[in-house]
Amino acid sequence: MKFKITLLILSVLFLTFICVGEHLLIKNTFLHFDEAVTYIERQEEYSLDEVLALQSWWEKRSRFLELTVSVQILNDLSYTYGELVGAVRCEDYKSASAFLDRLHSYCHRLRETYQISIENIL
């Protein structure tokens, strides 16, 4: 009987640890992504090098997120980012601003959706 209780307690602790780790990974990833998008947005003319560097970071990070976040959502975010790269390459900063706003919205909503809260638990 003690073995079953010990196993149950260890399982609950393990699952709790995984849940908190997932929460921190998602929160920190989208927080960093949002801060980087904000930095790019504050520039008068968007730097293609900075946009491409963030895209490279995002592609590496999104592979880990595929374990927990819907792939469709991540693909939509990646497509939007691809459109941003195209707009910056063409120096269409008006369109690029719209894509940056959409990326802000994605980051904010995904942090809210995947955070540990009463609303998400119930």
Structure characterization notes:
The protein is an all-alpha fold and 122 residues long. It has one domain. It contains five helices and no strands. The two termini are 32 Å apart.
For this entry, give a set of tags.
elongated; 0% strand; 122 residues; 84% helix; mainly alpha
- Terminal-residue CA separation: 32 Å
| Low-confidence sequence ranges | none
Helix/strand-derived class?
mainly alpha
Shape: elongated
- Domain module tally: 1
Q: Could you tell me the radius of gyration in angstroms?
A: 18 Å
The biggest sheet, with number of strands, parallel, antiparallel or mixed sense and barrel status, is: none
Number of strands: 0
How would you spell out the order of helices and strands?
HHHHH
Overall mean confidence score, pLDDT: 89
Q: Approximately how much beta-strand content do the residues carry? A: under 5%
Relative helix content: over 70%
Contiguous helical run count:
5
In short:
With 122 residues, the chain is an all-alpha fold.
Blueprint (SSEs and pairs):
Blueprint: H1 2-42, H2 48-65, H3 71-89, H4 93-113, H5 118-121
Helix pairs in contact: 1-2, 1-4, 2-3, 3-4
